[in-house]
Each structure stands twice: as structure tokens, then as C-alpha cells.
User: Fold these one by one.
Assistant:
Number 1:
Amino acid sequence: MSSLVPVLPDGFVVIVKRECATCQMIEPVLKDIAACSTPLTVYTQDDPTFPESVSAIHDSDLAVSWHNNIDTVPTLIKVVNGKEVDRTFGWLAADWQRITEIAELGADLPAMRPGCGSMSVDPDIVDKLRAKFTDSPVIARTVQFSDAEDEFEAMYARGWTDGFPVIPPTRERVLRMLTGTTRHPQDVVAIAPPDLVELTVEKIAINAVMAGCLPEYLPWVIAALEAVCNDQFNMHGVLATTMPVGPVIICNGPGTRAIGMNSGINAFGQGNRANNTIGRAVQLTIRNVGGGRPGEVDRATHGNPGKISFCFAEDEVGSPFTSLATERGIPLGQNAVTVFAGEGPRCVVDQLARTPEELTNSLVACLQTVHHPKLVIGFDAILTISPDHGRVYAEARWSREKLIAELTERSMTPGADLVRGAREIAEGIPPHLRDATLPKFRPGGILLTYAGGGAGLFSSIVAGWANGAIGSDPVTRVVGS
Amino acid sequence: MASGITILDPTNESKPATRQTLARPASIKGLTIGLLDISKPRGNLFLNRIEELLTERGAKVLRYSKPTFTKPAPVDLRQEIATQCNLVIEALAD
């Protein structure tokens, strides 16, 4: 710790600042308290000559205010044998009289007047104070740039970015980011591929700062990294594959609305800070801590722009279906992330279907093209229904289960049309499946979600990577605190 | 001078924090080496001799010069060297 924790003296302690009108108003009160037998110590935050009625100690580095959690001035604290036994803040005559046991204290003042913000919680300096005074177990190596270096260029030069600028992860910013979680900075969240190194909360917080996250996004970033760093999701394989996939993050729960995620207009696109920076923080962490960089372990033939960030929330309020998280076993009301190894989204246009059967036939026709119309079972997909398409199903009272069952049934295709060489296309399924009749997707292979703006008779498909043990399975994790 | 801002290392810290130099080539034979004259007087004499020595050792030498030693090399010149050469020697002389 950078400074000793100041011990408050016994008696009455009052913290004030001249800038505060309420502090100025209670100057006569301080003089009255000083006249009684219990000692009075006044700390002044801004002007060492204030208050003039009694002598005061200048809390110039705000150490007293910080360590005693002063949010408001004036604050009156009663200290007995080195311990705080009572406290009030602002001016509440009854409280001040009770604590000081001076019956007529401030009797000529209004009964109540709110105080002002303490300088120790001023948003402009609170991060510096936290960095200075918090005994934080942040242990990351520090890197000092030279004064001739532009810090943004320096971070590019060191290979720490995804091609866009990143925010310099100063100690102040990282400590502020860590206020977003109750977890200890040195908690190991996962073993990060491909270098298989211990991924701590601290390292995630550093990369979350760089990505542009707010502290309240950090638990979502942590949960998403827990979800991708395991054998089931197989982040190493998702990096190494030549296919154009990256982690697509689907967020569920009331917390998506609390942190302002976008599940509506342009839900997959640019513009929303939470959507874009949560996904980006996950990718930067894999790049910087895991060591997964394009051209090295990442061997994607084309990649896709979603590998910078692809993260969205389901519109659970508007949805006619149970949510993806509920389907995957998460209790209602819990926050959760589901990660899926996916490529970019593609649009399904159907502006004419008015029955659920017609619309489902359109969706199936487009879903059949996932990766190749003659390849089945081996790839999963996210299907995101828009409000305009969702209304068709809501009016017909089709549930999630009904829609999935219909999609599966209507996708059944004779093996003879899918085998290698059929339809004069070399690609296809092995010849021994010629006599089978096959659905496009394995059971559970359609991740049905609901999102998008209120206008547009379109839905969206995100195709996946090889599924199951040879590839990646979707993983769902609860978002912690 | 290390007096710029200080940040926390976002990596797994398996490599030193300072910028790394590239590995030295085992041999210069067959490599293309750029000689960049920064346009100070007599720099060309020094570089002529370097070119002789490198050519003797089997390297191909390409010559470049900056318009003036008082300013950094223009972007076009840096990119030209980067695309044409394996190695570059920048000469200072007075």
C-alpha cells in the first residue's frame, strides 16, 4: 500500500470542504462542538484556511477521506478508543444533536440540508485515489513507454491489437475495471489456448480495458471466456481451423438490459458499446494472453469480420419463444452467455409467407445451404428470428419445440440426393448413406434465437464449424458477479 | 528516455516487455541487402566499401538514399525498401 491508513483520533471528527455551502453553514456548529469537553478534529479537503471558526487539518492527499469512505461532506463521525461508533452526513440537526449530545446544537439552522459530494469520490480523481490507496493484488508486469513513443502506436507495434486502436490499460483504468467483479484479480478463470496459460481475472480486466468495456461488462467477458476455454468449445481448434469461424456470444437474462445491450435494430452490427466491446474483449484476451494470432495458430482461409467481435443479446421480452438460455437449462432470471463457433450472419428474405408452414419452408430452404446443400448433420447453426417473422409464429402459437420439430421434419432429404456425385456435384455425404433419409441438422443443432429490429420480414442464419467431438459444441455459462 | 505512460502488460508475459529484434540470418549469401544513405557528406564512400564487402560475400545490394538527413525517411522509401530487401543497413557518416 502506498500510504499508511490514517487512524482517526478519539472524539468527534468532521470532514468538510469550503466549496460546500452546507459546510459553510455549519461553521458556527463546529465552534460549539469545539467548546465542549470531547475533542474535535476537523479535516478540510480543499482550502486549508477553512473553516475559520476552528483549527483544521488539511486532508491534502484525501487519504483520511478515502480510507474512511467519506462520500458526502460534511460528515460527522464519533470515535471511541480508535473505533468509529456513529456517523451522520449532510446536516440533519437531530442526528448531530444526538451524536454530540449537545441538545441545542445548530438550533437556529434549518432542520435539514443535504451535503455535497466528497472530493474523494470526484469522478475525475477517484481512479487515481483507488490506484494510490488500494492494497490491490494486481501483479501484472508494467510496461513503460518512452516519451518519444505515441502509446497507441506503441501498442500496435507490440502486436496487442486486433487492427483497431486499443485503450491504454493504465493501472488506474484496470483497477476501475476490476470494480466490476467481486472476484479476486488472481483468480484463475480458465487455461487459455493456444499457449495453455493460466488466465486470471486481472489479465481479462486489462484486455477488457483495451477493448473499451465498462466495469459492469466484466462479468460477461469472464463468463464468455470460461465458456470458450474448454475441450467442449475447443477454442484452440476454432482458432486453428481454416474455416471462417470465431466465438459468437449470445447473451441472455435481465442483465443484458441492465448493461444496455442491443437486441433490436442492428443487433449484430455496429454502434452498441456493450455488444461490441464484450465480444472484442474476449478476442483480445485470446490473442494477448492465449497467444492466438492470425497467421500463427489462427489459420483461417478468409476469416470473417465477426472475429473482431460478434456478440448480441436475445430479445427475451418480445420473443414468442422460450429463450436460448432457458432451453439450455439456465433458470429464468439468471444471466448467461452461450458461445457458438460461427461465421458471419446471412439474411433469409421471405416477405410473402403468411402461414407458419410457408415461412418454415423458406427457412429450411435457406438453412439447407449452410456450408453446402449436400452436407448434413455435421454443422450446427444459429437461427435468429426477427419480430416480423416471429409474429407469424406467435399468431399461430408455434412454440420453440414446434418450430424446431417442423424445421427438422421439413429438412429431411433422401440420401440419394446428397451422396457424392449426385446432382453432378462431387461434394456430398459418403455413399453408404445413399438409402438413408437425413435431416439437415443433428438433434440440438439449431440454436433458435429471437432478435432484431421491428421492421423487416427477414431472419438470419449463422453457420457453425464442425460439430461434436471433432469440432466444437456450443457452451452455456452463468454470468457471475 | 522512459518517461511516457506506464501500462499493465496484457500478455501472458512469456516474452520480454521490450520490443524484440529479429533473429540474425545464418548467412547473408543470396539475401538482398538495402544500403540507405541518409545523405550526409561522404556517407556514399562508406557505403561503397560496404557494398564491395557484401557483394564479395554473395549478397545482392540495392542502394537507396533519403532526400535529407534532417527528416525521417519518407513512407514510400520505407515501403520500397521493405518490399525489395531482406535486410537494411542505414549509414551515418560525417
Number 2:
Amino acid sequence: MSVVVLFLATVAAVIVWWLAGQRVTSRPWLEVGHAHDRRSGAPMPPAKVGLGVFLAVVGALFSLAISAYFMRMTSSDWGALPLPGFLWVNTGILTAGSIALHWTKVEAERRHDEAARTGLLAALAAGLAFLAGQLFAWRILSGAGYLLADNPANSFFYMLTGMHGLHILGGLLALGRVTARAWNTPFDRRLRLSIELCAVYWHFMLIVWLVLFALFAGWASDVIDFCRQLLT
Amino acid sequence: MVDVRSGIGEALPPPEVEDVELYHPHSWWTRYVFSQDAKIIAIQYATTAIAIGMVALVLSWLMRLQLGFPGTFQLIDAEAYYQFITMHGMIMVIYLLTALFLGGFGNYLIPLMVGARDMVFPYANMLSYWIYLLAVLVLVASFFAPGGPTGAGWTLYPPQAVLSGTPGGKDWGIILMLSSLIIFIIGFTMGGLNYVVTVLQGRTRGMTLMRMPLTVWGIFTATVMALLAFPALFVACVMMLFDRLLGTSFFMPAIVEMGEQLQHGGGSPILFQHLFWFFGHPEVYIVALPAFGIVSDLISTHARKNIFGYRMMVWAIVIIGGLSFIVWAHHMYVSGMNPYFGFFFATTTLIIAVPTAIKVYNWVLTLWRGNIHLTLPMLFALAFIVTFVNGGLTGLFLGNVVVDVPLSDTMFVVAHFHMVMGVAPIMVIFGAIYHWYPKITGRMLNEVLGQIHFWVTFIGAYAIFFPMHYVGLVGVPRRYYELGEMAFVADSVHSLNAFISVMALIVGAAQIVFLFNLVWSLRHGREAGGNPWRATTLEWQTPETPPPHGNWGKELPVVYRWAYDYSVPGAPEDFIPQNQPSPGRVSHEAAS
Amino acid sequence: MAVVVILVLLAVGSVLFHLLSPWWWTPIASNWNYIDNTIIITFWITGIAFTAVVLFMAYCVLRFRHRPGNTAAYEPENKKLEGWLATSTTLGVAAMLAPGLFVWNQFITVPQDAAEVEVIGQQWLWSFRLPGADGKLGTTETRNIAPENSLGLNRNDTASLDDVIIEGGELHLPVGKPVKVVLRSVDVLHDFYVPEFRAKMDMIPGMVTYFWLTPTRTGTFEILCAELCGVGHPQMRGTVVVDTEEDYQTWLAEQQTFSQLSASSETSPAATAITASAAQ
């Protein structure tokens, strides 16, 4: 459970940092009047805060699954499965999607609407390609005889990639709606915000994928072994 | 008290809250059924939760009949008994308490109390309710599925949860239960994002964090915790579904079931327990923290006195919330996990007692030198303190690792958690309903019926669960369909069991009075007016009662003071609403 | 006013119930009276706290209940008071935690000279295994379980052959000797629970768990299962008998070893009795 405890410690640090700016040690009964509300400037859009909170939830979900992975790994029946090289291609595609969305966001802010529309389409295509690629990787593996229930490593691989894929699928639905809106209506503040949120989500899912990839490739456990040696 | 007049001459700061774009209903369907108004959603949540809670109440009657009078009721066989306890537990904890506190009170009170027009994402909020309803329906469906609902106990421990020795293990029961939980968590996440972001971004002008009523603090902290803890249950459910349906071995070791070797191997049942309790312990506080918050406001309002030590109360809520994530394994002292964990988890568990005790002290110190109106909400708040202190103190037995060894898995545990997270939060729920019903409907609940309901429920519930501790102390294990012959169990224990069962039937019946009161008062209750309790918080200051969609009419309220200006010296009244700039009261504006 | 009376009755009644009711733990039969003592300390501290809070509340309601003309005091906080209360609570908690952790340390430190006894749970009966003449329990594997080897012993492990197997019978323990109870399950979670011993521990398929105790008085005690294990959970009973050393040795001599059992299951059932008696 150390992975998830570490993750939650990070979340807790963010919360404490935020609370520290909220004057939680003030004596509210002494402070009457409205001058005490120090919120200033344009507030962050609720959707952006909402996405941040949601990503914390998704982060907790994956760090719990990874915790379970490490705990289950210690059992003797664990047999790591060979990663299909095709996953490198998928990683490339997902990275491309992330870059495309970042570019789209920048273009949208610069009011280059046409370029942004193209960028959205590119990102959409990359997302679909990634999902297709993941399905293809599943086929390669099951074709080679690595079935879901044969070994816990296989089970975790299919489950975690499946969970990640579903999150990408959800992101694609949102991205699809944004793209449709971008093609039908002129760009406004809300649309630019939506594009930015899609980009943030995509970067986050890319990071999750890289962590998972490192986990499957065995690098993550190497890192942990290394940390353990440093500590002892 | 320094003499500085507050507020009046100064120019208002610009509004800092973007008005939420309200979805305006066009038809009866979108106004009352597929409504995006948080208040309607709250009522939908509460009605559904109470309805399914009544099912769980009936189940508890049935199981108590079996325990009190074993063998008398042919209908209740061992399979049915285990199905009853499982569904009773799961429904009460998740589908009633969690849904009612967060989905019900959270939805109703957060926007009103922080001065918002609605939740920030009304559409997701509506979806949240409908997904919750779907989860409830899937759960109910398991009663009608072949093999019936699961009988694995609410902890759903594998391997037995998915084996044929347990009702529903090899049938639909466990599958529907796990699916229902997964659906519930998805729906809750949508609602939870709303509650958190509304508190973060939806507060009106002047509503600083430290001016929020403790109700909002409690619900807010509980929601943050729920958002981070429910994923653990989600992962555990998904993995168990894989084990059950696809033959994987996440939790399933090599097993010989009734002489037959199963295909599984290598899995770890303890892994499930870690995941389950990583959710399960915070869950206790997900139910408790909203209760803490609400009861603080009830006591303060009805004792006409500010809540004692407001800052401590806020810090305690946050600290309890944080600590509750590192105590989960105190549910697993005798689970066979690494015994050295016992030192760590016993220490963290008992540390939680300190902020919790401070909260209790502050509640009773609020009563001290107060002006206590013994209204129904106040009575329920007092009952909460009694039952919560009782249940909390027995938690010190079970949290202290070595004391837990003889007591774990006995009726002592059952008595403890029913007292602390069953009876105590339910007392708050009742108090809260008596308190806010006038705002929700515009009418008061009937006082006489309320008194009957209170006395039977409070004394009855105490008479059920206090003696039950001693049944556990004798050594009677929990989850026994029948005790049968046990040499160390005297006959008097069986009589005590019968007494507990009779009390359970009576207390259950008293809830019918309550439900009747809820319905009857809708039409016949006394007209309440906008602020019958003369309370300070914003929800009582709405221009109309019940508040319409959008809550505030033309202008959002502006907040000038904290939520507890009761009996302020020099003020003409014994309360000053949060949105009232001039109290005739003195204060040091400049002191900050 | 009724509230005050009820609150006082509740506090006093709870204390009286505790003192006067006949419901108390069974007389102990193991060395874990430390646990009982820790419970008694906890009862004292929590009992005082409970009574104090409830009686104080009753007093507040009596003294400060609303009467025409009353007003509440205005006191947002009192740091000194809160500091005192927090400190005394911390002390009370420490007074419970410290002995608890001390006894827990004993609980998980098995003495060197403890004899091993294995308890195996399955739906819904208890089996037992003793190490036999070599004093060592042989290795086991759930995969080995078959009709003639119901506990899954490893035939290739010489330490297994002389292990004493008791299926569905009584477990005997010698009084006054520390025992390490090694726990195993072949199907679902169980929990080896003898109320008189105070100690208990879950049994987990795929894992070996343990606890230790020293039986302190002779007698016959019931074994219950304390972890829900399916519909037969309440029927999963067994018996443990604590014997004097002589009685224990007599009983031990009557039991069959793994190799005897294997040999008898290979011959015809009729011959079983003869081989068994010949072996003695």
C-alpha cells in the first residue's frame, strides 16, 4: 500500500499548502465586515478545479491498482509477461496526441481557429489510433498464448491497460464533443477552456500510461529496489 | 470588544463568484424528475436512500427475530439469514448513510449555506442521482435473481464471497452486488466533484472558509475523503469481478472446495482486505464527519450560543479526515497480516481519539452557560452525544491492538460500530430533518409525534446496543445464525438476546411514526415562516421558503460575519444572520 | 426536565449494569490474563469519561435550559481550557495504549521452547496436526490435497511422515507448556477461537498464520470459528482438551501418524483396524 500512501501524502501536501493560504488560524468572530474575503482577481473556472479534483481521484484509482500489483507480485506464481514491442508504437501515438492537444491549446489562445480545428482532429485521430493499437497489442499477446487468467502478471496487464483504455475512451467522447463544437461554432472563451481541459486530461493520461508501461517493463520495480537499497 | 462599526459605509467589493448558468426547466419532467436543481436532487437522493433504508430496517427485524428466538421462524434459514445481514450492512452503510449525508444533505445545504445559486455542475449532479438510483435498482435486483443476494457479509471477503458455500457466491448475488457498488462509486464521483468544487469556487462574497458553518466543513471534508477512498473499493470490486467471472487469481489462492481442487492459485485474500479497509475505515468518517458538522450547528442554534472553539472544531475535522487514511489495518489485527503493523496502527488509531474527544468537549462546552431550547433537533443532538461518546469509547477497546484480540469478531464489535456509526449518525439525521424540514417544505413537523419518535428511538436504541457489548464480552461470536449449545454461554445470555430483539422491533416500529409525520406534516404541519429557529446561517435567509430554483432571487447574499453570532452582547436580538451588515453590535474590524 | 432524569439514569444505569449484570467473560484458561487486565484498565478510563460527559451534559441541561429572560453567555473559545482537556485526554489515551502495546509485544513474540501444533480449517470442520517424534511439522501444499491426503502433506518431505494427524477429532494440549498454534486453511477464511484462551487468529488459504499461548488449567473447551466462512459457519465446532502431562502422553500414543494413515488407506478398509492396532 506504500504507493497509494505516497500518492495521498502528495495530495495531502497540496491540501495543506492550500489551507495555509486560507487563514485557518484567524478568529472569525472578531472579523466582521466583508473586507476579510481575500479572494482576488479572476477566480479559476470551476471546470478547471473540477478537473483537478477528478484527476486526483483517477490518480488514487491507479495508485491503488499499482499498490495491489506490487503486493500480488511477491507471490511465487508471478511470471512477468514479455511486452510486445508494439507498445512502443502506442506510446508514441499517445505522446503525439498529447503534443497535438498542447499545440491546439496554444493555437486556440493565439486565435488561430483553423489551426486549432486541425489540431483537434489530429488529437482525436491519435486517440482512436492508440485505442486500436492497444487492442492490437492485446491480440498479439493472446495470440502468443498469454491469456488473462493464466498468470497474475497477465491479469494485471489486461486489467490495467483496460482501465487506462476506458479512461482514454471517456476522454475521446469529451474531445469528440469539443471538436464538433469547434467545427460548428465560433471559438469563444468556453471552447478555449474546454480545449485546455482536454489537453490537461491527455497529459495526465499520458503520464499514467508511462507509469504503467514502466511497471510492466519491470523498470518500476527496479527503481523501487534501488530506493530500498538506498534506505537500508 | 472594540468599538468599530462594521461594513456599512464601505463600498462592496466586486462579486467574486461567477453566477452559475442555471438550467431553466421547461416542463414538469425537467422541473421535478430530471431536475438540475440541487434541492430537488437532494430530495430525490434522500427519498431513495430512506426507501432502501426501510428495506434494510426490515431485514434487521428478520435477523433479530432469528437471533432472539432461534428456530421459531421457519422462513429464516441460514442462507436467508446471511443474505439479510449482508444486505442490511451494505445498504445501511453505503446506500443509506453515505447517500443521505452527502447526496441528500450535501446537495441541499452546500449551495444554500455558502450562498450559491446551485451546484457548479448541475448536469453532472443530476446524472449522479440517476446513476445512484441505478445502483440501488441493481442491488434490489439481486433479491430477485436466482440464488438470491450475496450472503458474504458486508465485508465481502474472498474467497468465501465467490464460492458455493456462501449464498449467491456462485450465482448472481455477488456479481450484482459488486456491479452495484461500481455503479454507485461512478455516480458518487460525479456528485462528489460538485460538492467539493462548489465549496471551493461557489462561495458568495464574504464567505471565507473560516466563516463557513461546520456543516459545510464536515460535508466538504467527508466528500474529499470519499473521493479518495472509494477508488479502493472500486479497484477491489473490479478485481473480485475478474476473479469471479474471468477466472483470474487476484485474491484467490489454491483452494480445495468441498474436496475439489479449484483452478485458482497464488492469490492473496489479505490483499482484498487491505483494499477494502483502505476504503472501509475512511468510510466510517465519511459518515461521521457530516454528522459532526451538522450536530455542531444544531447545538449552537438551539442553545443560542456560538459553537465553542470553532477553530479547533475545523482543525479537528481536517485532522481526523487526514488521520483516518492511515488507520485502516486496525480492522485486520487478527487477519494474519504482519503482526508488527499492530504497533503502528494501534498508535495512529488511538491518536485519532484526541481530536475526536476535543470535538465532544466543545459540544458539551457549547451547552455550558447556554440558553438551551429543548427542541426536537436539540434532543436528537443530545442523544447523538450520548451514543457517540459511548460508541467512541468502546472504539478505544477495539483500536488497542491486544484488547482487540479477544473482542474481535464478537458481538462487542457489532455493538460498537452500530452505536458509533449506526445510532449516532442516525440521531443526527433525525435531528437534521426536524431542523431543516421547515426550510424544505415551509411547514414544521408535528411536535407530539416527534417526541414519541425521539424517546422510543433514543432509549430503545441504547437498550439494544449497550447490553449487546456484554454479549460480546461473554465471548459470543458475531455472524452466527444460531448459537446452539455453547458451554460458556449461560441461559441468561439467550434471554438478553431475546430482550434485544424485542427492543429492535419496537425501535423499528417507531420509525413508522416518523415516516407518517414526514408525510402528514407536508399538508397539516404548522406554517414555519422563513426562519423558525432564528438561525444565523444563510439558508434561513432566503427571500422565499421553500427556496425556489436559484435560491436567492435577484442578488446573491453578501456575508459579513461568521456563522455563530448568537447571543452577542449588545445586539438587540440573540442572533445576527450572516448576511446582516449592521448588528447594533461592536467588534474589532481592524484586529485581524 | 425528563431529559435530565433520563440522562442521569442512563449514566448511572450503565455503570450499574456493568457492575451488577451477570454477563462477563468466561474464566480464563491461558496465560493471557494480561489482556484481561488491559481491558479492565480500559473499562475504568472509558467508564469515567463516559459518566463524566453524560452527567456534565445533564447538569448543563438542568442549569442552562431556556427560561424566559435567559440569555446565553458569549464565549468563542477558551484556549487554556481546551489545552487542559486535550492534554488530559492524551494522557488517558497513553495510559491505555502503553500497556496495550507492551502486551502486544509479548503476544507476537513466541517463546523459543513453544511446541508447534497445526490447526487446519475447512468448510466446516477442524483438523489438527502434531509434529510427531522428530518435533518438526512437514511441509504442505494445498495442491497435494486428495481423498487419502486430506491435509495436503508433502510425501517427499521426511518430516511429514511421522506427523500425527487428527481429522475432525479433539485436540489435546498439555497444561503449562507454551504452544505455538500454526494456522492453515484449505478453502476460505476461518478463525481459530477458543473463548477461554482469549487469543484468536484468522486462518487464510495460501498462507500460514500463528499465535501462541500457554494453557494454564486443565479442562475441555469449545473451538468456534470466528470468521464468516459460509452457511455452515456456526456449526463449525471443535473441542480442545487441556490435559495433565500424563494424560496428554496417553492420548498422544493413541493417535495415528501420516505414514500409518497412508498405509491403512492403501489396504482394504477391513484391514485398517488390524494395521492400526498392530502399529501401536
